[in-house]
Amino acid sequence: MRVTNRLAGVWRRVRRQLGSSIAFLIGCLAVIAGLSGLAQTVDNPHVAGTQKLDTLIGGVVMILGALAYRSAKKRKLGEAKWILTRRFLEIALLVLICVLILAQNNLSYLIATDPVPNLIVPIWAIVAYLVIAFMPPTFVQRAGERSAPAASSGIQR
Fold first, then answer.
1. Domain count for the chain
2. Segment 102-137, tens digit of pLDDT
3. CA distances to 47, 59, 92 from 33, in Å
4. Is residue 7 part of a domain?
5. Is residue 153 part of a domain?
6. What pTM did the predictor assign?
7. How many Å apart are CA 54 and CA 117, to the nearest integer?
8. Which of 57, 88, 95, 60 is nearest to 72 (CA)?
9. What range does the domain containing 27 cover?
10. Which of these, 30, 78, 91, 139, is most buried using a 10 Å CB contact count?
């Protein structure tokens, strides 16, 4: 049946990008939470809003990292062409992550008080990109085949 093979192909593509999709979703939720906290801080200026701003920045970093990782993985798997523009945009996303983190006032204090959005998430995003970018393509393809369901698992007539 062609339908089961087509569904298996769709599910394989979804599973290949599952980690970056989850990171993207969590990043979107963090941005929404950060904007909500920022709006509450505007309504009540006596409340310190640095915690909500950290959530907003952490969410943006997660989104940018997930997009760069997904683009590099698609290149490695052969789903997207290797062109200079794609590579440049991936590097630009990583540079933007660094600028977002390094442009904050009193960064050492922010890292000490709230290390997750200011240190752990940016390092995680950059290291994940570097791992997928410098991993041999054959290893990435073998890992994708290992996690993919067999195409012959559906009933054929």
1. 1
2. 999 889 999 999 899 999 999 999 999 999 988 887
3. 16, 9, 25
4. no
5. no
6. 0.78
7. 6
8. 88
9. 16-148
10. 30
